[in-house]
Amino acid sequence: MIPPLPEAPGEAAVKAGFLARLAAEGIVLPPNQASVAAADFLALHRQMRLIRASVAPDAPLPLGFVPPADAA
Amino acid sequence: MTLHARPIAALAQGLRTGEFTAEELARATLARIDHQDGIINAFVRVEAAAAVTAARAADAELRAGLDRGLLHGIPYATKDMIDVAGLPTTCHSRSRLHHRATADAAVTERLRAAGAVLVGKVATFEFALGVTGPDGAFPPARNPWNPGHIPGGSSSGSAAGVAAGFVRFATGTCSSGSIRGPAAWCGVVGLKPSFGRVSRRGIFPLSWTMDHGGPLAASVEDAAIALQAMAGHDPLDPGSVDRPVPDMRAGFEDGVKGLRIGVPWHFFEHDPALTPDARDGIDRTLALLSDAGATIHRVTLADLPQFLACSRVIMAAEAFAIHRQQLAQTLHDYGEATVRRFALGAGVGAAEYLDAQRLRGMLTSNVDSVLSGHDALLTAISLGAAPSFAAQRNSTAWPLQASPFNVTGHPAISVPIGLDRDGLPLAVQVVGRQFDEPGVLRIARSIERLTAWNADEPSGLINPLSGLRPPRGMILS
Description:
Largest sheet of chain A: none
Distance between the termini of chain B: 30 Å
Low-confidence stretches of chain A: none
Strand content of chain B: 5-15%
CATH architecture of chain B: Alpha-Beta Complex
Shape of chain B: globular
Radius of gyration of chain B: 21 Å
Helix content of chain B: 25-40%
Number of helices of chain B: 14
Order of helices and strands of chain B: HHEHEHEHEHEEHEHEHHHEHHEEHE
Structural class of chain A: mainly alpha
CATH class of chain B: Alpha Beta
Number of helices of chain A: 3
Helix content of chain A: 55-70%
Largest sheet of chain B: 9 strands, mixed
Mean pLDDT of chain B: 93
Strand content of chain A: under 5%
Radius of gyration of chain A: 16 Å
CATH superfamily of chain B: Amidase signature (AS) domain
Order of helices and strands of chain A: HHH
Number of strands of chain B: 12
Distance between the termini of chain A: 33 Å
Mean pLDDT of chain A: 84
Oligomer: heterodimer
Largest interface: A-B, 30 and 33 residues
């Protein structure tokens, strides 16, 4: 389990950005659901950051291509 | 011994000696479901007339000398994520109550060809991702060991139906632990085969990178027999792998002497969700395996949070891609919790998704590397017994560790090891090399034998509902 982190500066923007993405998809959640979903997304966002930090520079894309900038 | 307590091999023998017919077996199965499923809610649909018709056909074929193998005339249930021609595949969602499948899923085709008799469709979590709350299409399945406790999910009805003694096996689907998790909490065997071993054609997708089909069964042998019929190449599933299907029971009773088993303790030993009983069960299982001649080694895999993050990001992105349009059009046909889970994928960008896929490749290589020096891994599956419905409502924790091997595609099985101090099942997970299901089944069979789970009573169906005594396996208290 990844321990919950305190909300860092900028994370309110992450939540707002997520809700804006949802709205752009035509998906509008009721306010009580939106706040829970935004908090859940913040946890997912932290996991995306963990993934980015974990990917080795020479890790290929699914079809085997290594991004040149990463491989350099 | 009553019919429901007999293993598949014994039922097959009874059908061939004329002790009973497939029709009698089907009617006994249907009567048991009718009598007890009002408590358990394993089934969302019982196909009584069709089951009797199929059973009569199985009897006629056997009388005529056409023998389709061990599953010929054996009743089973299928998860309501899997297509059966002419029946709805509701995915436990109000949004699909009027659906009707036009063709069988590949798994349904294969089980039909093997002569198995479908008795009905069993509960799931909504679209295999949501939770079964009050806004679900059907009541949630309950744990036969204690109906006040959840059975786990998403193959909730499959596990509950097998544990309650309704069927010896049921189909399940698994994208992040949906076969092994409920199997562990219901005291049955759950086998997620290697990615590509079982076709997903006709199974409603959740995450095509991590979706698997596989059996839940009352014993390790029953699981092996079921997988034997379910497995095989399907050119219509792009993820299906074209390689021979081995004899799933090869070396089945050979024991574990000389096998090297790795244990990634770092996955679970410091997890606060690990209960003393679950820890004790793992220790005692390892001691039994060691006494039986296996060598046990501490191994180190990549960090568990990397596996969990990879699983969650890939699933969020792919599930959202599947449901995106329908969410926008018919949001209120989904349960609230399901909507929130699917909605997360809207925030996963292409670069983040592809980074997760790159990490998935690294993690798969990592597990392959560790398994190159070991015959299998043994690790936790449930960090404790099934929580009660009340406890689960107040918690977002899901104390299972199944998703790493959906990320990597390795075969993994959940096998019961005993009961905790409250009389609820505990289990361990065995993970094998890619496409080595027989090796995984062999070790699981040894655990089943060594822990004396079902030692005298060859069924995992012994529970308070059945009115029979508890199994003699380890009571961890």
